[in-house]
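Section 5.1 Outputs to date
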Amino acid sequence: MLLNAGSPRPARPIPTHTENANGREMADKVIVGTGSYLPDRVITNDDIEAVALDFDRERAGCSLDQWCRTQMGAIQRRRIAPGEGTSDMGTRAAERALCDAGMTAADIDLIVMATITSDHRVPPSAALVQRDLGTPARFLQVDSACTGFVDALMVADALLDRLGGETALVIGSDAMSHLLDPQGFRAQSIFGDGAGAVVLRSGMNGGYGVKAYSTGSSGADGFMVAVPAGGTKRPITEEVLARREQYIELALKVIPEFGVAKMVQATQEVLQRAGVGVGDVDWIVPHQASCNIVIETSRTLGIPLDRFILNFDRVGNTSAASVAIALDEANRMGCFRDGERLVLPAVGAGMAWGAAFLVWHDYRRH
């Protein structure tokens, strides 16, 4: 995990307000607590090789462990336990974020949760999180895979303004193991299970908080990452199960190039919207698509890799939870200093991409 403090950087003026597209001043939203949860069960590359039917050591010229470390930087990832669901992980991450913020569920006005692996189609996992936390807060679920946390952050930010609320829980939680073919090694090597959350607070002064977002999507590229069956067009049938079309499929020849291009684009656009340059960025907390994609994003942007938070090697790609888990881990290790500038870029299924730019508030010291 790259959690180097890096060389000290000079303090810079902090923007004091944010304007919407109409030039109207809006209240900045500040992260005042972070939390994450990873299931106990650790899955190694050797564990995957033991069950996968499509990995050939002789053809690869190496073990799956060597292949994973070289191709994407994967060493291990987590899997939920039997009977554990997406909502359970989300609730635990939310509880830890609330504890970090010094708040209780009674203080929350809004819950926005991102996931593509809901416990049920109805009720959504967000409803179960609300129930388990014991709060009457309004809940909403966002279904946008790897960009889910950034999307959920944008939605919570806007709804706090529109609804007049003060505090939101923003959660990303995915049990990607639910979508993985146990006979195939590639997707199993990439994805992990986990959840991350932040407490987002409105109306704080001092120039801190989320200053800008960028977002985009391309339905024409949507089938780069797809689960072909299980929806209304292709319900689960014996034929579907025989063809194993209920599992995720990845266009791995084109995803890395697309991922780097869109992570770079999202970062550049959000910095332009915030009115700051690449050299003004203290930390990038990216979606953990793979180590190689993050490394190439660093090279293309010209931002040193030691300013990127990278935990893919330990937890894999946790989809909507990815950015939030990395943010929480870095926060708890004391990486972020008061007033530092962070970019949270993500790209994934849809295909979609986006980023958030924020000025960090060291809430533990204020």
